[in-house]
Amino acid sequence: MKNHVPVLAHAFIEGLLSDPDGYYIDATFGRGGHTRMLLNRLSNEGHVLALDRDPQAIEAADILTREDPRFQIVHSDFAGLENAIYQAGSPSICGIGFDLGVSSPQIDQAERGFSFQVDGPLDMRMDPSAGQPLSERLKRLSEKELTHIIRSFGDERFAGRIARTICAAVQKKVLSTTRELENICFHAMPPKARHGSTHPATRTFQALRIWVNDEYGQIDTAIKAAMHCLAPHGRLAVISFHSGEDRRIRDLIEAQVHPCTCPREFPMCICGKTPSMRWIQKKPIRANDDELSSNPRSRSAMLRIAERLPESAI
């Protein structure tokens, strides 16, 4: 397994950290790159609570748990953020960070079924102990439903052609591995669309992963909970990896930065909704050339940072 290199690490930690004595949450532990950097910046009074739904991430965190009493981890998806904070005693939260998407170890392990670069079973579950793998879930989808998933979550213009070919392969029982799915996506594309800068299977794999793991539903629940749970001046830092995620993050935060629902022509606000967040970094931070050369997977990473305003309620 390749070493996991956290993306936008310096900007992420700088954007998140406001008090070295504070209590922070890493809502997506992965292999702990960001958490370790954050712990290195905290005093002996600081604390990091991490969450992850992947049992392998929990195993990887056990060493850190034994080494550092300032750290603890909970086996939970990030939609369980509010409950994890409650179970921890509802501490005052100085910062909550999210590194969305799939971690490098998950991609590199063929048996997880996330990547068409290596052949493996069609699984794609972040938590292999919960729910059903993609191969089973595809059997219950109609062509119309699958088209909607690929188009909505992958922004794939050829969603209909790809969905039709996948459904035919499922019916014939000739689809069970990532390479088979990759081959289907490739040949479902018009010949002129097969050799662009992005592999023909990329958007479909992305869409199916998002659907299997309810990633957008998770994001909606978790970001709203994070903004609610932050202490005054607490920071929210979110790294996303594609435009659909990034738009969702932007819009969720923007709804709290500018919550007024009055028509534009009104001379003054009468809805009474006041801001509860402010932007620290609205325009996404992206990897610089040095990081891109050392960690190619950072090329699509986008970081947004916001802060909870004092004396406000969402």
Task: Give your account of this protein's structure.
This protein starts with 8 loop residues before the first helix and ends in a 6-residue tail after the last strand. It has 314 residues and is α/β, with parallel strands linked by helices. Helix 2 links the parallel strand 1 (23-26) and strand 2. The chain has 2 domains: 9-105 and 215-308, Rossmann fold (3-Layer(aba) Sandwich), CATH 3.40.50.150; 127-212, DNA polymerase, domain 1, CATH 1.10.150.170. Helices cover 41% and strands 16% of the residues. A 7-stranded mixed beta sheet has the order 3-2-1-4-5-7-6, sandwiched between helices. It contains 13 helices and 7 strands. Helix 7 packs across helix 10, helix 8 crosses helix 9 (178-188) and helix 11 (215-229) packs parallel to helix 12.
Helix count equals 13
Into how many domains do the coordinates divide? 2
Judging from the principal axes of the Cα atoms, what is the shape?
A: globular
* CATH class descriptor name of the largest domain: Alpha Beta
